[in-house]
Write a structure and sequence with these properties.
With about 675 residues, this protein is α/β, with parallel strands linked by helices. Helices cover about 50% and strands about 10% of the residues. An eight-stranded mixed sheet has the order 12-11-10-13-14-15-16-17, sandwiched between helices. Strands 1-2-3-4-6-9 form a six-stranded mixed sheet, sandwiched between helices. Bound molecules: 3-hydroxybutanoyl-coenzyme A and 1,4-dihydronicotinamide adenine dinucleotide. 1,4-dihydronicotinamide adenine dinucleotide (NAI) binds next to helix 12, helix 13 and helix 15.
Length: about 675
């Protein structure tokens, strides 16, 4: 870490170099404080430019220091020190000025930025509010409405827009340092604007706070920080500067130690380490310049869209001309819907579509770098496809399967160069869902695996390495979720009660509503295959519903009834009578929300512990990412494993033992019991 001061005649340039993102560690704060002291008393300096080396301006407070005792100089004091410096400071921004980084920039008298820069206060995404005056100074600069939007959502604003809002003073085309020095020299010749602490907040209509409060609460769902952030901006508008600063600091300190902030920090670091697993350090991925998808159905079209969104040319291979047309039409619908939602322009959609070739000819794949198969979930069909790919593609091309449940080893059996084969399990809709399970076989080389991770980075997905087992990580846990949900029905709970409880826990949907939305037929197909293998999957009620062709919303009824054209679930008498029949020999209980949640979530934890034990997942944090990004597990709970650890693993074991004694769950696994002794999940070795 270095903070250097150089002179350009009468302008001092302070450069921070604290890789990777110039976070405001204690040492950086101290050096900036010292620089302010030095430059204040140097008569040859008329203005100060604050600039950063590396990929970005200051990206915020150092999140690694959050769990530790804070050391002076504290960030609010540093920002105040810069703001009250005797010479004007000019923040020269490239990359992102985030959180504490933007707060430092707000302490500067001016802000200039390159066009590609962005600025934001993402603290709410970490379960906190700005802690160094962001919520107090920003409304003084851009008004309470725009400040509220930024502070309560955590979204960043690009430099040109920030310029139009008055958040930055100039966009610098060309060399940033030179542009900032020129700006500083011109500014030093003119009368200076008041520092933000001396400005007032523009007045808003009193109804603004009530209306905004409702909107923020509904968006935030169960997260605390957004409403607390709104309260900070409101205080800034209604109280004097010092009172508002004290209020913000108090809120920041309270939230920083909260369970939600700890959970969101955990997810922050898990997400950042996921794309670069330590076991692949130094392994070069193969180049990915072109891609192909085999099968243009639900998944294939979504995967092809994701590949195009990342700028790759895509060849879509289908089994006949009619299917080619259907696949291309699926893609067209995806891009049209993105245009309707305002995500991309009509022109971009046209450009994305023009980068796709639809064909039945495997000969076109001779030079393709990566091929992803998404044909029917049938071993013979998939093996036939890989037989063709094996000869059509060059021997360095990565060949991937999107299978949900089949064994990738069996799919790859007999192909030429099996070291280039890997499972890439996308989630539906594949162009939207962030999770990508990456499943190597015994023969997959590290370079092929690294290519899977490189592809995930290109597609902006969260990659998680998974071992081979039925359902990999996510769907294996999902099977437990569903089986437990049915156990509850047999023991006296209703589908509505179960769904309501799981929503209250923080899931976007309960297990029955979710099945009705996705369709019950896919899981029924899996169960048939499992029974053919001699397994005994547990779904007594779902099996009966499928016999009646109650497949969910698409057939007008599933776990619930649906009025024609409606998506609102209505309790179903037919389902109630099937449950009553199936539950004849099971003792009935009263279920409250907390016990329903335990009866579903804790067996999921137990299964996850087995997954860790078997090394199907390498890290507990990976399972958290799978649950959050594949299944909507509440982020503010930190994922399934973090939730269990925070709740206390000993308590989880005890609750599972009680459930097991009543035949409502399997007993706690060995790894769970052993982990409970230390309070944290341990992998097997
Ligand atoms: N503190 C500590 N480390 C951080 C960090 C931070 N604020 N932000 C990023 N890092 C680390 C990451 O953990 C990662 O470490 P690794 O290489 O060891 O895994 C490394 O920096 C690179 O991060 P990314 O992989 O995310 O790099 P990108 O180039 O893709 O993105 C970024 C850069 C846009 C800056 C992104 O890292 C980011 O959004 N960071 C979070 C910024 C943030 O939330 N700031 C607010 C902090 S809270 C605050 O400031 C409180 C204040 O109000 C008092
Ligand atoms: P789908 O039935 O919507 O699409 C399959 C497509 O494959 C069809 O368009 C079909 O014409 C094509 N196809 C079949 N045989 C072919 C062949 N020999 N050559 C070329 N194309 C051929 O199926 P879906 O849902 O897209 O599933 C595809 C794969 O993705 C399956 O392995 C499934 O398990 C997996 N998957 C599905 C998910 C889902 O939610 N639907 C989620 C994750 C994985």
């Amino acid at each position: 870490m270095t903070v250097t001061i150089e002179r350009n005649s009468d302008i001092a340039v302070i450069a921070i170099d604290n890789p990777p993102v110039n976070a405001l560690s204690h040492a950086v704060r101290q050096d900036l404080w010292n620089a302010a002291e030095t430059l204040d008393t140097d008569p040859s300096v008329r203005a100060v430019v604050l600039i950063c080396e590396g990929r970005t301006f200051i990206a915020g407070a150092d999140v690694n220091e959050f769990g530790k005792p804070p050391m002076p100089p504290h960030l609010p004091d540093l920002v105040a020190r810069i703001e009250t410096a005797t010479k004007p400071w000019i923040a020269a921004i490239h990359g992102s000025a985030l959180g504490g980084g933007l707060e430092v920039a707000l302490g500067c008298r001016f802000r200039v930025a390159v066009p590609s820069a962005s600025v934001g206060l993402p603290e709410v995404l970490l379960g906190i509010v700005p802690g160094a005056g962001g919520s107090v100074r920003l409304p003084r600069l851009i008004g309470p409405a725009l400040a509220t939007e930024m502070v309560t959502t955590g979204t960043s604003v690009a430099a040109p827009k920030a310029r139009s809002q008055g958040l930055i003073d100039a966009v610098v085309e060309g060399d940033l340092e030179k542009g900032a020095i020129d700006f500083a020299r011109a500014a030093a010749d003119q009368s200076l604007p008041l520092p933000l602490r001396q400005r007032s907040v523009p007045v808003v209509d009193p109804s603004f706070w009530e209306t905004t409060s409702k909107a923020v609460a509904s968006r935030a769902k169960r997260e605390d920080a957004p409403l607390r952030a709104l309260a900070c901006v409101r205080k800034a508008a209604e109280a004097d500067f010092d009172t508002a600063m004290a209020f913000e600091r108090q809120t920041f300190l309270e939230l920083r130690g909260s369970p939600q902030a700890a959970a969101l920090r955990h997810v922050f670091f898990a997400e950042r380490s996921a794309p670069r697993p330590p076991e692949l350090a130094g392994i070069e991925p193969r180049p990915i310049r072109s891609a192909a998808v085999i099968g243009g159905g639900t998944m294939g079209a979504g995967i092809a869209a994701a590949l195009r969104d990342a700028g790759l040319p895509v060849t879509l291979v289908e089994r006949d001309e009619v299917a080619v047309e259907r696949g291309l039409s699926n893609l067209r619908s995806i891009f049209e819907s993105s245009v309707k939602r305002g995500r991309i322009t009509f022109e971009t959609a046209a450009e994305r579509l023009s980068g796709i070739i639809g064909t039945t000819d495997y000969g076109l794949l001779a030079r393709t770098d990566i091929v992803i198969e998404a044909v029917f979930e049938d071993l013979d069909v998939k093996r036939e496809v890989f037989g063709k790919l094996s000869t059509a593609c060059h021997c360095d091309a990565v060949l991937a399967t999107n299978t949900s449940y089949l064994d990738p080893e069996q799919i790859a059996a007999g192909i030429k160069h099996p070291e280039r084969f890997v499972g890439l399990h996308f989630f539906s809709p594949a162009h939207v869902m962030k999770l990508l399970e990456i499943v190597p076989t015994a023969q997959t080389t590290p370079a092929t695996l690294a290519t899977g991770f490189a592809l995930a980075r290109m597609l902006k997905k969260i990659p998680v390495r998974a071992g081979i087992c039925n359902g990999f990580i996510g769907n294996r846990i999902l099977k437990v979720t569903r089986a437990q949900a049915e156990r509850l029905l047999l023991s006296g709970a209703t589908p509505q009660a179960v769904d309501t409880a799981m929503r209250a826990f923080g899931l976007p949907m309960g297990p029955f509503e979710a099945q009705d939305l996705g369709g019950l037929d896919i899981a029924a197909f899996q169960r048939r295959a499992a029974r053919a293998r001699g397994e005994t999957p547990f779904a007594p009620i779902a099996d009966r519903l499928c016999t009646l062709e109650r497949f969910g919303q698409k057939s007008g009824g599933g776990w619930y009834d649906y009025a024609k054209g409606e998506r609102t679930p209505q309790p179903s008498e037919i389902v109630a009578s099937i449950i009553a029949e199936e539950a004849r020999e099971t003792s009935q209980q009263e279920w409250d929300e907390a016990r329903i949640i335990d009866c579903i979530a804790l067996p999921m934890v137990n299964e996850a512990a087995k997954i860790l034990h078997e090394k199907v997942a390498l890290r507990a944090g990976d399972i958290d990412l799978v649950e959050i990004h594949g299944y909507g597990f509440p982020r503010w709970r930190g994922g399934l494993m973090h939730y269990a650890e925070e709740r206390g693993l000993a308590g989880v074991v005890a609750a599972l033992e009680t459930l097991a004694a009543e035949d409502l769950a399997e007993p706690p696994s060995d790894l769970l019991r052993r982990s409970a002794e230390g309070g944290r999940f341990v992998s097997r070795d």
